[in-house]
Amino acid sequence: MVKLDGEGAEPIEFKGKTYKFVPSGRKGYHELAAALMQGRLSYPTTIFLDEQFNMLSPVPGYQKPEPFLNIARYFGDNIYKDKDWKTYSGAGK
Question: Are residues 93 and 82 in the same domain?
């Protein structure tokens, strides 16, 4: 797990590209945070990536422990490869 400050000023190289801080308004934002959140900057957001660092899903907002662990298992145990989220979570019931 990596924690990224979406308003951090240090350049970050990710997948062969350098992302930088962009001053905007009173603070600004980091280009990598904007790219990972698909331009929808909201904090906190947890981004799940696969082994090749391809984005699987952004999960915006604070998550309580039990729902977060359920989401983490879904991606961490590669369940997403065989079941959609509604089936896995029981949301379709």
Answer: yes
> What pLDDT, in 10s, does the model give residues 32-41?
999 999 888 8
* Cβ atoms of residues 36 and 55 within 8 Å: yes
Is the same domain home to 75 and 93?
A: yes
Tell whether pTM > 0.90.
no
How many Cα atoms sit within 13 Å of 73 on the Cβ side?
8
Taking a C-beta distance cutoff of 8 angstroms, is the pair 11, 19 a contact?
A: yes
Per-residue CA distances from 40 to 74, 77, 80 (Å) = 23, 27, 23
- Domain count within the chain: 2
Give one DSSP letter per residue of 47-93, joined into a string. EEE-TT--EEEEEES---HHHHHHHHHHHHTTGGGTS-HHHHHTTT-
Question: Going by C-beta distance under 8 Å and a sequence separation of 6 or more, which residues neighbour residue 50?
Answer: 56
